[in-house]
Give the backbone structure.
Amino acid sequence: MFSTNQNRENTMSVTVIRSNELQLRDRGGPPGIARVGRAISSDLSPSMGAGIAQFDKCSSSWRVLYDEIIYVIEGTFTLTSGGQVHQAKAGDIMWIPKGTSLKYGGEGAKLFYTVYPGNWKELMQAANSADALETEPSN
């Protein structure tokens, strides 16, 4: 997935993630592209997540389960939420609070994102498992 300069004896060390080695996964298109590549996941940080995304003439709808910060590297990034369209261009930063229903999109947009908590998937799975245990009938 990525290369690291991590010292295996020390769990708290600096890690370099090469952007050209990230695996970008399709999240929409064709037509257009919507791709996301996670750089920081729970194997590196129990509290944060981060990565790179691209949106070009394609959109992806989602309800965020975390707080998110987006930094636009290039192009124009568009986020639609609650009927309001928010545009950010290269150099702009966008804050998105947990629970926001939205649609990501863009024109030649490349962005860096970071989320908290980064282990939101694991937390959601644990909550779903706990809910299932509470709803199971007892004998």
